[in-house]
Write a structure and sequence with these properties.
Elements (H helix, E strand, L loop, with lengths): L3 H14 L8 H8 L6 H12 L4 H35 L4 E3 H25 L7 H6 L11 H14 L4 H30 L3 E3 L7 H17 L7 H6 L9 H25 L1
Parallel strand pairs: 1-2
Helix pairs in contact: 1-3, 1-4, 1-7, 2-3, 4-7, 4-8, 5-11, 8-11, 9-11
């Protein structure tokens, strides 16, 4: 997206081509700027700001921008709540299958993140989809048939067609995923504080030593930042575990669950 000052400058240029009558005469502003110092782009910005002396153009642009950001905030809150409620529903039993819950937390998220990376490499330089531009058209956010409003809406729609818009849309997608994962993290921390859980794992084909190695591999990154990782005793104890699991073993699994969500979910999304 263009910066607010660039948007104002482009809006003034567009309105000039449409013979719009401004509050301040553009010719007088241009004559005064000829004797001033500054780079050409700085003079263009200054010219646009002075032509919009009453701030009417900037107000229309600000209204569209504010409503767009408001929708993003509302959607992020909804996604965060949905993540919280989804995990809250998942962890209603006292005995939790650790690897099943971990796949529910990070499985689809990891696939989508990998898909985004692949599509980013494939679609370099290509324009964003036209259907998305029509779906998020600013004409839905602001009413008005005057030439200023129509020109401002057209300006935003042209930006949606720009090849760089996919980075802006990608950032919004990551923001929603991050909100969902944050909601899940809040649910995990809340439930681990108010409830006592036992963690288990089940497998017909995998032996104890295989799961010990898998757990150590999974816990390498979380352990680097201080999260606990179940030792071999805790892993063996957790096979088909019942409610009688020791508190120390349960805390080790809980630490690995929180650490995995942070290091393999939230941190990669925040970096993306």
């Amino acid at each position: 997206m263009l910066s607010p000052q660039d948007q104002l400058t482009e809006l003034v240029r567009t309105l000039e081509t449409q013979q719009h009558v401004f509050t301040t005469d553009p010719l007088l502003i241009t004559e005064k700027l000829q004797g001033e110092d500054g780079k050409p782009i700085q003079k263009l910005h200054r010219r646009a700001s002075r032509i919009d002396s009453n701030g009417a153009l900037a107000q229309v642009l600000g209204k569209i921008d504010g409503r767009t950001k408001g929708i993003m905030v509302i959607m992020s809150v909804v996604w965060c709540i949905s993540g919280f409620l989804g995990l809250f529903t998942l962890l209603q039993t006292n005995v939790v299958n650790f690897f099943y819950v971990l796949v529910c937390l990070l499985g689809f998220h990891t696939i989508m993140l990998a898909g985004w990376l692949i599509m980013t490499l494939i679609n370099q330089g290509k324009q964003s989809s036209n259907w998305f531009a029509s779906f998020v058209s600013p004409s839905y956010l602001i009413r008005g048939k005057d030439d200023v409003t129509l020109a401002a809406v057209n300006l935003y729609e042209r930006q949606l067609q720009h090849s760089g818009m996919r980075w802006y849309l990608g950032r919004f997608s990551h923001q929603l995923w991050l909100a969902t994962l944050t909601g899940m993290l809040l649910a995990i921390v809340f439930l681990l504080i108010v409830r006592q859980y036992s963690f288990s794992w089940e497998s017909t084909l995998l032996a104890d030593q295989t799961l010990i190695g898998l757990t150590n591999m999974l816990g390498w990154l979380p352990s680097m930042v201080g999260f606990s990782v179940p030792d071999s005793t805790a892993v063996i104890e957790s096979r088909l575990a019942a409610d009688a699991m020791s508190l120390s073993a349960a805390r080790q699994w809980a630490g690995l669950l929180i650490g995995s969500l942070l290091m393999y979910g939230i941190v990669p999304r925040a970096l993306a």
